[in-house]
Amino acid sequence: MHVPRAPERLVYGAAREVEIHPDRDALVHAAAEHVVALARAAVAARGVFTIALAGGATPRPVYERLAQPSFVGRIDWSRARIFFGDERCVPPDHPESNYRMAREALLDRVPIPAANVHRIAGEDEPEHAARAYERTLRACFGDVEGPPARSFDLVLLGMGDDGHTASLFPGAPAMNEARRWVVPSEIARPHPMWRITLTPVVIDAAAAVTFLVDGASKAERLAHVLEGRDGAERLPAARIAPTHGALRWMIDAEAASQLRGRS
């Protein structure tokens, strides 16, 4: 039986734990195991597992791995509640919909009740969709002023080559939001589009926040984020800082290629 090689581990300060996996497949497998472990622990402790899914190319194979026979039975999907970190303002069957990607890769392939999946209504007017999704989150985590005491068991995030995460882009007002949990955000690249995104107010209240990053195209920006190089404070991915939860970066060797702290 093939035994995966243990990842290289780095720690940046007290807050950022980094796992470097030898290749993309090893990263995908480890990320799927990570989701399983947190899901089982949450269900054992509280009877429910809440997760905010990320969009993008990196998480998709993780979702596909979780839907494989060797994984699917290891999570009690009847106890899982699925949310989304962000969504493009498109209908749910649109090729650019994060919900559609997650549905095709995972949700249609596991025994999860439809009522347990809470998608963002990207087809609605952006402000209306954001406020409606915030009401959904507040119904789950408590209708409080400011951040909840605790939000998700796990938030999965990716990182763009510009340092954005979810739909929190450099210079966007959403990064400085102190009260709202969900906001609309208009972005310019790769083409003008409205998106709906969770804000750090609710992301940072999660019990665990895990970034998944792969590929050489992310290496330079990732080094800025993790090592605090000049300008890192302007990068949304660098500013995610769970208040009480665990922050983990799971990356492959190509994404780690410009990190100075490697052995």
From TrEMBL:
It is an enzyme of class 3 (hydrolase). Pfam families: Glucosamine_iso. Pathway: Carbohydrate degradation; pentose phosphate pathway; D-ribulose 5-phosphate from D-glucose 6-phosphate (oxidative stage): step 2/3. Coiled coil: none annotated. InterPro entries: 6-phosphogluconolactonase_DevB, 6PGL, Glc/Gal-6P_isomerase, NagB/RpiA_transferase-like. SUPFAM superfamilies: NagB/RpiA/CoA transferase-like (SSF100950). It catalyses: 6-phospho-D-glucono-1,5-lactone + H2O = 6-phospho-D-gluconate + H(+). GO terms for biological process: carbohydrate metabolic process; pentose-phosphate shunt. Residues 22-249 form the Glucosamine/galactosamine-6-phosphate isomerase domain. One of its GO terms (molecular function) is 6-phosphogluconolactonase activity. Keywords: Hydrolase. Its EC number is 3.1.1.31. Hydrolysis of 6-phosphogluconolactone to 6-phosphogluconate. Belongs to the glucosamine/galactosamine-6-phosphate isomerase family. 6-phosphogluconolactonase subfamily. This is 6-phosphogluconolactonase. It comes from Sandaracinus amylolyticus. The lineage of its organism: Bacteria, Pseudomonadati, Myxococcota, Polyangia, Polyangiales.
